[in-house]
Amino acid sequence: MVVGEENLDPTVHKQLAALGYDVTALAPSEAEAIEMAVEAGDRFFEVSIDMLCFLNFNGYFKRLNPAWERTLGFTREELMSRPFIEFVHPDDRERTLKQNAAVRGGGRALGFENRYLCKDGSYRWFRWNAAPDSDNQVIYSVARDVTNEKRAAIERDQLVTELQQALAEVRNLQQILPICSYCRKIRDDENYWHTVEDYISHHTDSQFSHSICPSCMENVVEPELRKSGRG
Questions:
Q1: Which of 106, 135, 176, 180 has its CA 20 to 30 A from that of 32?
Q2: Cα distances (angstroms) measured from residue 141 to each of 62, 112, 177, 180
Q3: Can you say how many angstroms the Cα of residue 111 is from the centroid of all Cα atoms in its chain?
């Protein structure tokens, strides 16, 4: 956008240039140029998909854009009525306060992550970038909702773990096992002999339920029953 340069205060000229305006000769007055800049800033604030905020050094939100309401379910008035830290997950509060103190001291937050409370009691993961304005005692911040990204990462890690466990079980079962030709026990790596059930139970998550196959029933169990007079 192009605005007028005549009679602009040098400070205003610098501020407008920083907002991306080409200060030339179309706006008729300094007042109109300032008004145009403010309106453009307000529009950006209102339509942003990410969550924008001004946080006072006293710990209360000074200004929030509508994305906060869409994401958390609280109204902006509700969010600004309580210290911001009350909306942070209890497990994240200590490091959040440390990061906040660092920014108030002149530092910046780059990619800082924490969880914020939703009105329904659930939590959303936010990733923050923030910088201080010490003269005005305020922190300017932008937060992005990365909840789905975090969930996908957790699900991916769980899947990898399950696959690794499955492969480990397959490797254990595929190795050459020394087994006794008579008693059918298996020798482990430490030269101890185990029943098949014990060995497999120890090396896998498999469990056994015992029964009698038809062949053993016919050739072993029934003859034994007949001998004992119970068959």
A1: 135
A2: 11, 11, 62, 70
A3: 12
pTM of the model: 0.56
Its sign, for the CA torsion 55, 61, 66, 67, is positive
Predicted local distance difference test score (pLDDT) of residue 198: 80
Mean pLDDT across the stretch 4-9? 52
Q: Tokens 């990204």 belong to which residue?
A: 149
Phi, psi of 36 (to 5 degrees): -60, -40
What are the Cα distances from residue 106, in Å, to 57, 98, 139? 12, 13, 10
Looking at residue 19, its pLDDT comes to 59
- Distance (Å) of CA 192 to CA 178, 185, 186, 189, 212: 11, 10, 8, 7, 27
Are 15 and 41 a contacting pair, CB within 8 Å?
A: no
The single-letter DSSP state of residue 84 is G
Which pLDDT value is given to residue 126? 97
Instruction: Provide DSSP, 118-177.
Output: -TTS-EEEEEEEEEEEGGGTEEEEEEEE-HHHHHHHHHHHHHHHHHHHHHHHHHHHHS--
